[in-house]
């Protein structure tokens, strides 16, 4: 306490604020500690009495400071927002705007509605939307991610091809990101939408796209027990043909772990635009 008083006195004298002296002590109402009562005389001769509990004020400042877990969450959330890649055609898409044309598309929409409405409390923590292109899988997957983010969760939407490009960007020595940091964030996000698995293109250096399969397998491995929405046009045999029987089998196995599979059929709506 004497150290606090002496330090305050020296600072006030240095700043030429006026004369200060201790005139007594009091018991702090909050912490019950002994607090000095100070009397300050300003340069106009006016006397001011002050008594602040340094311990309580310090505690108040600490309580207002962001908690470590909150800082970590905001960091993860910003990563998902900064590095997600959303095609322009999906911006503004909502679940309500999707109009199913058959029973399988209706089932897909109902599954998405249930997933969003009960996020984190469904019997299955993930969804796999599988079927030909142009049926609205990406539409609904993105719409789900947008609504879940709006509720305050950390979310990332990214197509497999864009994800591989993000990994490649770390090869640049000037990159602020590292591959390990990307996977660290991917693992910790509340929801990842991994779109169009199998649609990515790479020049094959061997019989299969081994580099791509390793990175995609890593994502599915990290997200095996975490909320994830996958979309793909590929069947299991086609996955194996693209990535090899071992890697392709592992990818599909991890995608399906704890997931509800929705098989979608219908016409390619994109043909209308051709």
Automatic annotation (TrEMBL):
Stored CDD domains: AAA
Pfam families per the UniProt record, alphabetical: IstB_IS21
InterPro entries referenced in this protein's UniProt entry, alphabetically: AAA+_ATPase, IstB_ATP-bd, P-loop_NTPase
Source organism superkingdom: Bacteria
AAA+ ATPase domain sequence ranges: 123-268
Protein name: AAA+ ATPase domain-containing protein
Species: Pontibacillus salipaludis
């Amino acid at each position: 306490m004497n150290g606090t008083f002496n330090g305050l006195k020296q600072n006030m004298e240095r700043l030429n604020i006026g004369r200060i002296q201790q005139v007594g002590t009091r018991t702090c109402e909050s912490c019950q500690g002994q607090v000095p009562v100070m009397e300050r005389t300003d340069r106009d001769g006016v006397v001011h009495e002050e008594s602040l509990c340094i311990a309580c004020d310090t505690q108040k400042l600490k309580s207002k400071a962001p908690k470590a877990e909150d800082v970590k969450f905001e960091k993860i959330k910003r990563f998902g927002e900064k590095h997600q890649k959303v095609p322009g055609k999906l911006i503004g898409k909502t679940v309500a705007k999707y109009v199913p044309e058959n029973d399988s598309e209706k089932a897909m929409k109902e599954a998405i509605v249930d997933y969003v409405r009960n996020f984190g409390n469904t019997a299955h923590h993930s969804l796999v939307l599988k079927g030909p292109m142009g049926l609205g899988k990406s539409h609904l997957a993105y719409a789900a991610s947008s609504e879940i983010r709006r509720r305050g969760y950390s979310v990332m939407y990214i197509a497999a091809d864009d994800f591989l490009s993000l990994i490649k960007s770390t090869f640049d020595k000037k990159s602020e990101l590292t591959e390990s940091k990307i996977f660290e964030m991917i693992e910790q996000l509340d929801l990842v939408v991994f779109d169009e698995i199998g649609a990515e293109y790479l020049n094959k250096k061997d019989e299969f796209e081994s580099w791509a399969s390793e990175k995609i397998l890593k994502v599915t491995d990290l997200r095996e027990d975490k909320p994830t929405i996958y979309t793909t046009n590929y069947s299991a045999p086609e996955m194996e043909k693209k990535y090899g029987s071992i890697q392709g089998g592992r990818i599909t196995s991890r995608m399906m772990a704890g997931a509800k599979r929705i098989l979608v059929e219908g016409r390619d709506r994109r043909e209308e635009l051709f």
